[in-house]
Design a protein that fits this description.
The protein has 414 residues and is α/β, with parallel strands linked by helices. It has three domains: 212 residues, Rossmann fold (3-Layer(aba) Sandwich); 70 residues, Helicase, Ruva Protein, domain 3 (Orthogonal Bundle), CATH 1.10.8; 99 residues, Arc Repressor Mutant, subunit A. It is built from 17 helices and nine strands. The strands form three sheets. It has a five-stranded parallel sheet with strand order 2-3-4-1-5, with helices on both faces. The protein has a two-stranded parallel sheet with strand order 6-7. α3 runs antiparallel to α5, α11 crosses α12 and α13 packs across α17. It is globular and about 70 Å long. The chain binds adenosine-5'-triphosphate (ATP) and magnesium ion.
């Protein structure tokens, strides 16, 4: 038995993490600016599995000083790192932030003593939290709670001055709360109130799926203006390979038997993944598992990807089967999706589809109509007759399926 270092089902630990240089440089600068009183808030949008939570973990570890910054310095932030969810209201989000604020303080004995008022407040607030929960919603004053939180950030910064660099608030899955939770308004008010009170050492980072910015705007038109915005991209080929090499290095430190990989096998994993970190981890994990002679070759990768319990089926089960198999009975319709996948998530018209596959007009029309009705493809509101796939990762998955095998579905059991 060998330890498998790849993580298709969990956040990447910092030693398996590569890429995101642009975002990391910005965030590090932002931490420096925050320490000196000019916070640069940031918002990162990215599809499922693109590495948002892993990036935030890396940022959190650097901000608390567990790992060093790029300039080899050690930061010393109080880091609040929470995941939001669809059931949360405005008040629930504030309570979640406060609860993690308490956890973050509890890990810093000295700061806890210096800022005893804040600690007491957070301890009491949790009890109040239970009461709030039992109260009629209409009796809760959301803005009072926001003000209390602001006041306690201010107190902390004053009482622990010189002992901390500031506070970093990371909100993951920020697209999930309902529009009624008014997250846009919440962050706008929070950051404005803090700067009015000259508590300028609090920085907010937020991440969620595409659509987050639009959602924030529904509760406050200018909420997105407070953020510097990044759209997370797939990893580059070099970064893909660096992830695989780091994984093997981790494995070779733990396992007695050393594992190597052929260059063409590494290339194939990288190509199949198209830089989607989740895909990369899935392909690498399976290839590592399937290998029996301690050298991963391209045959191992092919079996890992295309086999009946392979990575593409795993990814299908996790994300795409419903779109690609359950909802579609016709192979012709799948061929249309296959043709569209060559254009990733760009707008595509009938001529473009017909340049990729030969298909009768009537069948193509029926396919587009059916796929549109089932929300599998999205019609262009600005241009009749144009459609696109919902995500780049869906396109990448379809392309991978067809990369080596023109008839990959003969073995499929959905
Ligand atoms: N920069 C990276 N380097 C290596 N692996 C990564 C990187 N980013 C993410 N991964 C891996 O990719 C997968 C998805 O990562 P993560 O959970 O961080 O994505 P996410 O965008 O938060 O996904 P979701 O939207 O589902 O929450 C995980 O298996 C993780 O280990
Ligand atoms: Mg995540």
């Amino acid at each position: 038995m060998k330890f498998n270092p790849f993580r298709p089902n969990s956040i990447a630990p910092p030693d398996l993490f590569h890429g995101r240089d642009e975002e990391m440089v910005f965030i590090e600068k932002s931490l420096f600016q925050t320490k000196n009183g000019n916070p640069q808030h940031f918002l990162i949008e990215g599809e499922r599995g693109l590495g948002k939570s892993s990036l935030f973990l890396k940022v959190a570890e650097q901000a608390v000083g567990t790992t060093l910054l790029i300039n080899d310095e050690k930061a010393n932030f109080i880091v609040i790192n929470v995941e939001l969810d669809s059931s949360q209201s405005f008040v629930d989000i504030l309570k979640t932030i406060a609860a993690d604020f308490k956890r973050a303080l509890s890990e810093k004995e000295k700061i806890k003593t210096l800022a005893a008022d804040v600690w007491n407040f957070l301890s009491k607030w949790e009890i109040l939290g239970v009461r709030y929960h039992k109260l009629d919603d209409s009796l809760i004053q959301p803005y009072d709670i926001l003000n209390e939180l602001v006041l306690n950030f201010e107190r902390l910064l004053k009482q622990a001055k010189g002992h901390i660099d500031g506070v970093l608030v990371l909100l993951d899955e920020a697209d999930r709360p309902d529009e009624k939770a008014s997250l846009g308004e919440l962050v706008k008010l929070l950051t404005e109130k803090l700067s009015k009170r000259e508590s300028n050492q609090v920085v907010v980072g937020m991440t969620g799926q595409p659509g987050l910015i639009a959602k924030l705007k529904t509760s406050h038109e200018s909420s997105s203006r407070i953020f510097t915005i990044f759209a997370l991209k797939p990893l580059t080929t070099t970064e893909n390979k660096a992830v695989i090499q780091s994984g093997l290095a981790i494995a070779n430190r733990i396992n007695k038997e050393q594992t190597t990989i052929d260059p063409d096998a590494m290339e194939l994993i990288s190509q199949l993944s198209e830089g989607y970190p989740h895909f990369l981890q899935e392909f690498a994990f399976k290839a590592f598992e399937i290998d029996t002679d301690n050298n991963i070759c391209s045959e191992d990768v092919k079996e890992a990807a295309f086999g009946n319990i392979g990575a593409l089926h795993q990814l299908g089960h996790k994300y795409f089967n419903d779109l690609y198999f359950t909802q579609i009975g016709s192979d012709d319709y799948r061929r249309v999706l296959q043709a569209m996948s060559r254009f990733s998530d760009e707008w595509v018209n009938r001529t473009m589809i017909k340049s990729e596959i030969s298909i009768k007009d009537t069948i193509l029309n029926n396919a587009l109509q059916a796929l549109k009705t089932r929300n599998i493809i999205i019609p262009n509101p600005g241009q009749q007759g144009e459609f696109r796939l919902p995500t780049k990762s869906f396109a990448a998955w379809i392309k991978a399926f067809y990369m080596l095998d023109e008839e990959p579905f003969r073995n499929h059991q959905s």
